[in-house]
Amino acid sequence: MSQKLNVAVVFGGKNVEHDVSIVSAQIVMENLRKLDKYNILPIYVDKYGNFQYHDSLQQMDTFKDCQGCDFKDFGGYAVELDAKAKGLKFTKKGGMFGGGKILEIDVLFPVMHGMNGEDGTIQGMAELLNCPVTGCGVLGSALGMDKVLMKDIWKANDVPMVKYQWFMRKEWGEKPEEVYDRIEKDLKYPIFVKPANLGSSIGISKAKNRKELGFAIEVAAHYDRKIIVEEGVENLVEINCALLGNDEPVPSLLEQPASYEDFLTFEEKYINEGGTMKGIESKVKIPAELDEKMTKEIQDMAVKVFKVLDCSGTSRVDFLVDKDTNKFYANEINTIPGSLQLHLWEPSGVSGEEMVDRLIQLAIEKYEEKQSFMTLFDSDILKKATGGMKMPKE
Q: Beta strands of 64-113 (E only): which ranges?
């Protein structure tokens, strides 16, 4: 029997989506436990950025009465990275007997929503330490988080989207009238205002006039230094499509979220009846109520979006369909963990445990391909170097 792989599930994080990450990680670990092929190493990052390890972190009850837990609350271990070893290793510090212990990690499975996790930072850590990581790499994750750069790349690749403007918080603080004028010149109300680098519907507001626009900008500016504003679609249907794969991603069935608001709020996603994490069946239609032609067009466009943003593993692309014109627009992409749409993959024929297993295998596949690339190149540049050398031209 082959040796089990050590999979580190890293979750929590120093960001406003910290609690959502805990819920997502519990679902990932629940499905990993159904597979008799992985050892689960739960690594929790608290609200202050401290890495911690303990087996009890696999249980939701550990967190129920704990806000921003300290590892002392559950007898856990502080964790430090060991950059000397090949591959990713964590050195466990403290505990009952003190000292250190190495936790060897074969695959890193990040389940960290938002900044300092979903944005490419933890993916970069894994790459530097030569460890396979599930989901997108540094670039795909970073582009998936920054809605402005995401849309700029879409524009260059003829991806349909609503009109948008963006500005920096500093500009809003110094020249609000210029920001107002630029937005109102280019966009029609209603307008959606969002922090450029955030998810879970946090900090998003709808504005129907200048007064509401100013309030919405103030809200978004509390969460990010870059703000994006988008022209709204009045009579819209939201459609989501998940993808699974590396170079040739396979699209899922389409889902049609049912919301009482103009967009799914944080409460609708994660709290009311379990939100998208549990009990979502009562809030969505799968498959979406679209004809075969539009369904195929949206799935094909989701694949294109995945590829142009250099994504891998899994992602979910959200679309807006204008019921008046029957046109659709790409709205945003969600990389791991916002893309772990187990409720969407199960009707598509992929169970939860098959999904997480496939993500781990895709991570190893991507890692092994990268190891085949040449990283060493011998040259005479150092032999010929002198104290007065100029910077070499590329």
A: 77-81, 88-93, 100-105, 107-111
